[in-house]
Amino acid sequence: QAELGKPQRNCYTLPGFDFSYRLYTHGTDGGVPAAIGHWNTGKPRTALVQKMPRDYITMNCGAVKAGYTTAHEFNLYYKAKDIRCRDVNYCRVKRSSPKAPADMTFGITTRPSTPFFDLLQHKYKELWMEQQRARTAAEQMEKKKKDKVRETRTTLLRKHPPPAKEESFWHLPRLEKV
What we know:
Layout: H1 31-37, H2 56-66, H3 71-80, H4 92-95, H5 116-120, H6 123-147, H7 153-159
Helix pairs in contact: 2-3
């Protein structure tokens, strides 16, 4: 309720000084002193050999190669050479990561910084302007090539007329006047 003689507040009051703005997990959270003071190490894993089923195919092949024939000998071989199947989820990549050289960096290499002197001289603007000029000059050359009229046979004959034929005075002997 509003205090006497004062308007009703439209906001929440702040908590006291002993309030902490975080979630508290009971039993596991010891705060900063616990994080600095000791290591919370995980329990060592039990051997994966116990969880995976036996690989009887491989063990039978090994027993036959060793020369065992009876069931009792096979059971003794199973106890001596306990081979387990590989789990489908247990792969080599999860066990160990490939060893990389110490000086190798992962990811994309950083771009070299732009030289300040080139920025102050407007070098990049000049390069861009030269590229634009070269592009417009190339476009104009293409346009001139397209606008050029092709020469026809008539225009070629006007420029370079064929040489006049020389008249020969030679006649066939039978057509000569006798």
